[in-house]
Amino acid sequence: MQKQIKRYTIYACLIISFATYSFSLKSANDLVKEYQESMAIVSDYMVRTAHASEPQEASHEVLKASGVEWSFEESESVIIKAKPDSIEGKIRAIFGEDSDDAILIAKCESSLDPSRIGDKHLTYMHEGKQYGDSISLFQIRTFPNRPDREQLKDVDFNIKYAKKMFDSQGWYPWTCAKTVGLIK
Length: 184
Prior knowledge:
Blueprint: H1 2-22, H2 28-51, H3 55-66, E1 69-72, E2 78-81, H4 87-95, H5 99-110, E3 117-118, E4 124-126, E5 129-131, E6 134-135, E7 140-141, H6 149-153, H7 155-169, H8 175-179
Antiparallel strand pairs: 1-2, 3-6, 4-5, 6-7
């Protein structure tokens, strides 16, 4: 009975993590596609685990096939981590204990799309350079006293600069911080 409860806890965690990811601000078609893919992984996980003589081995197969990084601890809990070279992995490496909030902000601001350029209606020219728009993952607004647009387009630089801003100002520079409830 105890193992069955642990299995259902794993299922619930998987469903919640996939559902949470689906709430990022992507287009409706992307959300539907991601939801279907997520549910297919969860369904495959549940079916294989239920029918397997060794549930952990079946679970390993499903998680490996889905491309997520994972591990099982002695308690049979599944730990799923962002791959280190993924955008989420890079954010986690820079933001540390604040990484969950940072990922939430980046998802809200850009849907984790490093090519996203926002606030184009605020663009202006100053001394021959373009400023005012917001660039990449954390939608960092360009100003004369900040790094230029090309620097901010670099994923690693964007994350590091966002961390620098966060360390000095908290989440206040990001409009999404209010949207997701990190500030009032």
